[in-house]
Amino acid sequence: MGLKWPPETVLGEEAIESWQQPGSNCILDFHGDPLKADLAVFSDGNHHMALLPALKAFHGAHPRINGIFYATTPPYPISQLLRNGALRLGNLTLAVRPHVFISPPHVLAQLKREGFVGGATPLARNRGSALLVPRGNPENITVIRDLLRDDLRLFISNPQTEQVSYRGYRETLEAAARWEGLEKGVLDRSVFGNTVVYGACIHHREAPEAVAAGRADAAIVYYHLALRYTRIFPDSFEMVALDQMEGAPDPWPAELTAEIHMGCIDDGGPWGELFLDFMQSDIAAQIYARHGLQHIRDIDPINVRGE
Q1: Of the four, 64, 147, 206, 266, which is 20 to 30 A from 244 by CA?
Q2: Residue 297 belongs to a domain with what CATH number?
Q3: Do 94 and 21 fall into the same domain?
Q4: What is the pLDDT of residue 200?
Q5: Which range is least confidently modeled, 71-85, 88-102, 168-182, 239-253?
Q6: 3-class DSSP assignment, residue 295
Q7: 88 and 120 share a domain?
């Protein structure tokens, strides 16, 4: 039946009657009522665990907001929803225009070139990647060379549909292999062969499902995603921290992290600019830090890359 994901709504909509089946009619990354929303936020999904409490805190500071709708998918579907005005979810058509867009810098830069976004502001940076394994780590995975075993299956995001995360994960694995002194090309032969398990298009949901179902023995995910899964499913998962592996540098290399930027669509509506201001506040910084991300307020400005 899959993992039982907790509710992720801002205004208590979980009290409304729910009708879903995890294997088919289950929509996890569109939250709230788009018809009633005074604020609509489209965001990449990898920091959804921090975005939810941030939205709740923002609503607490501005209770006059009647509703908040937010999406937490990979960048492509929400970008196409913005461009085309609609997106099909099975047989349901969703037509909503966002006030705020949050995504990797290159996505915001492209939307700026297309005239949707006037400018982009850095929000946060992740802390690199980790391995997610079943509780108890039954395969005893502690170093990258453990992934070379013929009987071990590694989950990674899809190289076509989630190119940014896949590229980041692949570069991280290759760097970690170098730190351990493994020969060049060994990952191509022994990991990315017949045993690799690729996601389809939503790896922040698919990775834990694959490990929980036994279809993968480990998954490489962002550190903050692994932290989230171990917190909400403590009986199912644990984390193997890559920054603690043999030969790992301290601090973790900035080039093996990824940034998140944000900007208003058009004029942002009545609440968009206020929300961007809030997301740069101490409250938002504390929320993102609790969920394993580096907020822009905690990053050396010299190390913040532009668009």
Answers
A1: 206
A2: 3.40.190.10
A3: yes
A4: 95
A5: 239-253
A6: strand
A7: yes
User: Residue 24 belongs to what domain range?
Assistant: 13-125+259-303
**Looking up tokens 């970008």, which residue turns up?**
79
- Token duo for residue 54: 């941030």
Concatenated DSSP letters of 175-214: HHHHHTTPPTTHHHHHTSSTT-EE--S-HHHHHHHHHHTT
CA angle 8, 211, 173 (to 5 degrees): 100
C-alpha of 76 from chain center: 13
The reply to whether 33 and 81 lie within a common domain is: yes
Q: Does this model's pTM top 0.90?
A: yes
Query: Does 95 lie in the same domain as 26?
Result: yes
For the chain, percent of residues with pLDDT exceeding 70? 97
Residues 121 and 264 placed together within one structural domain of the fold = yes
Domain count, the chain: 2
Scanning the structure block, which residue is given the tokens 């990991």? 191
Across the chain, mean pLDDT equals 93
pLDDT band at 307 (very low <50, low <70, confident <90, very high): very low
Reported as a pLDDT band with limits 50, 70 and 90, residue 22 is confident
281 found inside a domain: yes
Beta strand residue intervals within the chain, DSSP E? 30-31, 39-44, 68-73, 87-89, 92-94, 100-103, 121-125, 129-134, 154-156, 197-198, 218-222, 237-241, 259-264, 294-295
Question: Residue 289 and residue 283: Cα distance in Å, rounded?
Answer: 10
Angle at 39 between CA 65 and CA 99, to 5 degrees: 150
